[in-house]
Amino acid sequence: MITQKLIALADAPYRDFTAGLIPTVDKARIIGVRTPAMRSLAKELLKNESEKAMAFLEELPHYYYEENNLHAFIIAELKDFEQVMKYTERFLPYIDNWATCDTFAPKIFLKYPEETLVYVQKWLASADTYTVRYGIGILLSNYLDAHFSPVHLEWVTAIQSDEYYINMMIAWYLATALAKQYEATLPYLEAKTLAPFVQNKSIQKARESKRITPEIKEYLLTLKVQKS
C-alpha cells in the first residue's frame, strides 16, 4: 500500500517542523516525510509499480498531506501533456495548503507554453483559493522570461480576493516581475490601485531581492501605501 510506504519514511522531528509551517493542515494529517524522499518515491513507483501509481491518482481525496504531495509528484513525472493536464485539473480542487500548491510544477508545462496558458487563465478565474494561487504560481515560474506578455500582469492584478494565500502569491509574482520585467511591472505599483496588503507586500519582497538595485529599492519604498 502506497500510504504505508510513506509512513515508513516518517521523520518525527520533521513532522513537527512541517506542521508549524502549514497551519491550514491538521497535524494529525502530517506524516513527516521530506520532499526529496517523496520525489524519489514517485519516480520509483512509476518505474516499478506503474499500475499502482496510476491507481493512486484515482484515489482522491487523500487523507495525509504527504499523499497529496506524492500525488502531485507522480503527475509531474508523467510525459504526456494531455495526460498531465487531465490529472492536474482533477487534482487542483483537492489542494488544501500552500506547500502542496507551490511544489507541484510539471516540467512538461514548459514545453507547451501556449497550451498551458489557456488553462492558467481558467485557473485564475476559479473560486478555489489554491487553484487561483496555482495559476499565479505557474505564471511566476514559467512566464516571466521568454514567454512573458504584459497581459499576464493585467490578469494577476485584476484578481480581487480577501484570501491571504492568494494575495501573498500575487505579491510574490509582482516582486519577481519587478526583478525580471521592471518597466512593464512598475506602473502597477505606481498607480497605487492594488489592495494595500498586495501593494506593500510586493514592495517588501522586491526590496528583499538581490536582483533589484539599491536605487530601485529606495524608489519602491516611496510607493508604499497606508493600510485602510
UniProtKB/TrEMBL annotation:
Transmembrane segments: none annotated. This is DNA alkylation repair protein. InterPro entries: ARM-type_fold, DNA_alkylation. Pfam families: DNA_alkylation.
